[in-house]
Amino acid sequence: MDRYNHRKSQMLLKITTADGKPLKNAEIAVRQIKHKFLFGCAEFSVVPFVNGEFSGDFKEKAEMAFEKFVELFNFATLPFYWGRFEPVRGKPDTQRLKNAAQWLKNAGFVLKGHPLCWHTVTADWLLELTNDQILEAQLMRIKREVSDFAGLIDMWDVINEVVIMPNFNKYDNGITRICKQFGRMGLVKMVFDAAREANPKATLLINDYIVSDAYEILIEALLDKGVKIDAIGIQSHMHQGFWGVEKTQEVLERFSRFGLPLHFTEVTLISGKLMPPYIKDLNDYKPESWPSTIECEERQAMEATLFYKILFSHPLVEAITWWNFIDTFAWLGAPAGFITKDGRIKPIYDALYNLIKNDWWTGTQTLVTDHDGFVRVSGFMGEYEVSFKDKKSKFTLDRKYEVAQIIL
Amino acid sequence: MDRYNHRKSQMLLKITTADGKPLKNAEIAVRQIKHKFLFGCAEFSVVPFVNGEFSGDFKEKAEMAFEKFVELFNFATLPFYWGRFEPVRGKPDTQRLKNAAQWLKNAGFVLKGHPLCWHTVTADWLLELTNDQILEAQLMRIKREVSDFAGLIDMWDVINEVVIMPNFNKYDNGITRICKQFGRMGLVKMVFDAAREANPKATLLINDYIVSDAYEILIEALLDKGVKIDAIGIQSHMHQGFWGVEKTQEVLERFSRFGLPLHFTEVTLISGKLMPPYIKDLNDYKPESWPSTIECEERQAMEATLFYKILFSHPLVEAITWWNFIDTFAWLGAPAGFITKDGRIKPIYDALYNLIKNDWWTGTQTLVTDHDGFVRVSGFMGEYEVSFKDKKSKFTLDRKYEVAQIIL
To answer: May I ask which residue range the UniProt record assigns to the signal sequence (chains A, B) (predicted)?
Structure first.
């Protein structure tokens, strides 16, 4: 049995020439040009890079890195942390983000904004408001970003880490305050409603790092309450070690019972020494240096390959996003990326490239149309190019079986 | 500051003689005869004991044990595990349970039935039914027991361990099947509605051993859905070691945010070697013998004292139930009781007796009425006896301040 069968489809092309006549008994070439599956990465340095804020060696390294970035991925997460996006009330960083989004969109990327509501890195100025005012500001901010970016970004992590949100006690913040008052259920409903209203076509996610019963129950309750969650976001920051096959499968089983798409939104496997197991909040670990090592780079490549294979073989998983691409900009200073601080490409790049653009990619096929111009094609779902001599056209291979009319 | 202030109250008694005249300037005695707080125990051998099924040495030991039992406790949990209560469909064990309940009620006990819906020890014959039939049988069984025992048992653990219920996979059972189909939210709503309909005055609990965010979120979602939970049941089987001050306070803080009464429904601290920490499901631990030892009995008494003090000092805690009283009948064969297998009373008995009937008990007070027959009384909430010479009457000291008319 093909464990990736659910990633493939087939369809019938009816090929005609410009004058409407069937292209009979002709040898055509068909090749995949894009995946339907979202292979993503969150590399937030794309924002200063695209906005021309890098110079010298920094700029050169970034140019090389983003060339590799667009070769491998088709999906990117952009940062909308409220405290950074709007540090001064009324002055959102909209234009810089639009520039980055447009650049990625031009490179063929699907985009997601992250996150619209979160208790961490939220705006400090919320602390001066009453709870009703905080809620109003939160909902307005959601409507503003989701409207402003509609067409560029049509996918959002609407709310992040709501499992612990009302109990978060490391420091006071506006979002924990309103989550305590309105409850998890109440707050999630309101932020989803606001995002939906601003862009009815958007794909809206809930996202969490808690992968236990607590998150499962939260989702069950939200669905029961009628909150329309389009996809379940699951973080997997494995700084303390790879989950392994069993835990990965257990998580997939737990969250697949809803029949909703699963997005692995934040995948980290590091190419350095593991964070010790006694650390509970990953933010508390602050080593003086955290180098990438040859042996650990091998481990990172092997574990990532195994992880991606398990996820890609599960029918409900629709997206995997690595967190992040370049060690220089990595969260916690961890060697989490595909590129070391000195610009060296790690083995994980080739390992995943080989999966995404070789094993799971339908290369050029030479096919022959029948006497009515029909030809059957099959392969991994996504966008395809069909060519006959110097003429070219495109079609999309998706789950639904259908006949495509193509003019060459 | 008195950490038990919320357990106390005061009131004004207006004492008259039988002819309606004030009992002026008289020296009266007031003494507590019962706690408002529910100090409970689950000792299921009360059922065969009361039904005369014990004989010989067994009977003698049980007689001694239940004498100590009624001296200390005012609250008892009775077993309604479906698989044992109705092993053959249509033949429930109603009469034996009624006998035990009546015996305890006569001894002044408040009673709770446990549990009405649970995936463990449920009826095997459910496996032959369709899911709709299982649900119907479950709801009918709830209505039957709650109606049959109304007046005797007006408090129920309606549903047990629903956090893991749909994911329970040790063996197939009817309740996990319907929880998977109807969801946790749906099932809890239906079983609570059935119990409420059968006895609108009953106190209805949800009960779980999971004390993490998962249970908190479940409760939040159920309340949001409109399920009327009268008290939150929290298990605390500490076979692997005492929670300690921090975890106990953390659990109290987590579940107190709903403002609902908290019942510690299943407290275990053992007087023997601790179960190893690597055991995940306590049922998996099966030592050849599990003796009670002198040193561990001291530890048990000290930890129980500390645990009860923390719970009694929290305003929302209204009940604490030990699990169970006699080692001979203990779950898992653990030395969990107050009485060893050879009938010896452990130190925990005296330690808790000293708290419940001495430190937290208002002993006899001699008071003098004023010239209008009024006298102010104060003490731990509960029932009191007031006496003047050979005449006696009773009153209840509760949270609400009021004047009681008493005829002596």
So the answer is: none
